[in-house]
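Narrative progress, year one. The postdoctoral researcher (J.K.) led the effort to move from monomer predictions toward full complexes, under supervision of the PI. The following entry was the first complex the group processed end to end, covering 705 residues in total.
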Amino acid sequence: MAHGPAKGLRRWLFTTNHKDIGSMYLWFSFAMFIVGGIFALIVRAELFEPGLQIVDPNFFNQMTTMHGLVMVFGAIMPAFVGLANWMIPLMIGAPDMALPRMNNWSFWILPFAFLMLLSTLFMPGGGPNFGWTFYAPLSTKYAPESVIFFIFAVHIMGASSIMGAINIIATVLNMRAPGMTLMKMPLFVWTWLITAYLLIVVMPVLAGAVTMVLMDTRFGTSFFDGAGGGDPVMFQHIFWFFGHPEVYIMILPAFGIISAIIPTFARKPLFGYSSMVYATASIAFLSFTVWAHHMFTVGMPIAGELFFMYATMLIAVPTGVKVFNWAATMFKGAMTFETPMLFAIAFVMLFTIGGLSGLMLAIAPADFQYHDTYFVVAHFHYVLVPGALFSIIAAAYYWLPKWSGRMYNEVLGKTHFWVAFIGLNLTFFPMHFAGLAGMPRRIPDYHMMFADWNMISSIGALIFGASQILFLYIVLDAIFRGKKATGQVWEGAEGLEWTLPSPAPYHTFSKPPEIK
Amino acid sequence: MKVPMPSNPVTALCLKLSALVIGMFVFAIWILPPMYDVFCDITGLNGKTGGRYQAVDVPAVDTSRTIRVQFVSTNNDGMTWEFGPEVRSITVHPGEQTRIDYAAFNPTGRDMVAQAIPSLTPARAANYFHKTECFCFEQQPLGAGERTQMPMLFIVDHDIPESVHTITLSYTLFDVTDRFPELVAAMAD
């Protein structure tokens, strides 16, 4: 039973091992994170000063679109799936994922999807330039020829996500060690279980939306074309019916990670475990009732505006429960501030800022001013960068010793944190002011009055981007030169994964562990 | 009826989840769009007005109220026709049948087919604005250099909410020549 991995390239191509596949997901998402980051830096370079300097407006639009698509579908989502692959079997005492072959398949179709998506940039007419939300008719009537590759790339990414989600549900519901009841599962497993259900319900809707775009562009249907009796506003309803649960897909696993890290470094059990589970479930449920808050300005009746406004504000309640629980976990704890904890605390603070600007945007009458301005950009970057991304980085620092068997350099890790923290706030905080003053999104040029805020944002973006190169160095340095890590790794860490030696052996829990 | 399930719980679960995936895909393409249309039809939300109206027993004209009806016309992107109402605004009484003509001129050198799509504001008036005859019910073919008058007959319903004093009806003209080659062929004959 104790045979090791195959040698060479075949190990990675044909592996069905959850740890190998998890690592591939994580490296892939890091590569996509760098690619998407380069796109963002091109955008920020163009916006460094008013006027058109570096790229033409069409290419600028391709950069904003590709940055969004690559970061959402290439960086954040695969990173969470990679973490799920690595950690869920270790956390519930399972030998592997329930469907290991499908696991291999769902990873290996991803690089091809992104190769196809990125190749559109070199095609005549350029790549997608209609924003990551691909509103019709921008993505139908006015789309570049390459839209068809975008559509198939989204289909493949969706298929990959759906397979990953089915695998996670099958693993969590069938493979738990005896005694690991649902309410004993670590919160990361819980949040992923709920996320997986969200994925299964909404990814087919995204697939449906791109299919309808395909039919409208190639097969003469009129789903979104007014001339044939369709309605472009319907596209927005369908897209955001997918899109709003999607934003929770990108944040719920982050809640699970933070709920693992904070108790470890506060040396106290998580405050309010069961309320965390119920809060996660209510956020997931409510996420289906708020989609039209992305489109307050399409001309809804007042009743619709009020419904979506109140429903959106209702989500602040379970989210507030979570923030309160994390704060209460830290309260009077014996806290230490290793790198994962720094990222986790920054998550709690900065995600809350993003949540509060979300509440401002939820106020329907106020949204008419904020809509499509940089205030929206500031809002969702505050929930996605110090939210989703910081949780992933925190998870990487937290579990890297378990994965690689070696510790990272703490001084460099803390440097990474502070540079990234300063860079991100320099980048995104001024966007609030530019947006409130009326600067529109997705425009390559802007009025002189926004010049200072934009220059600060661009400098911050460069700092933030540079800090991620340091992150790559820290990880490689740890893997190849780091000090040996103990099995326990962190003094206050609890959970099945810490009962294993570091690095975790290729096969673990072949015999189910005993759950106390 | 009980659907037989595989005995392996993982296989059974995967089957159920796959059914959910397929169900949601079907829901997105075949159920959501018709549902959206029905919902908008009932509420008048997207400003679309109803189809041909058959006045059953025509009650007397309610001269105690007057409603201003404004007409707006827009050419969709790339549509080259000259298109517009003969009057921009008229005042009518509820229950009164009124005719308004739109003029269209095809200045191009080719035969074309157009489709007008209505939109009405405020949305709460949409279900009280009845068209007994309208050029928007079908496509309008127009030969090269030809012009035509396109009639629209409407009745504002007696039951229109008290708060509505002005109705704005907008037509957007789309070029649908590519979709109706048979109409173009008929013009050429």
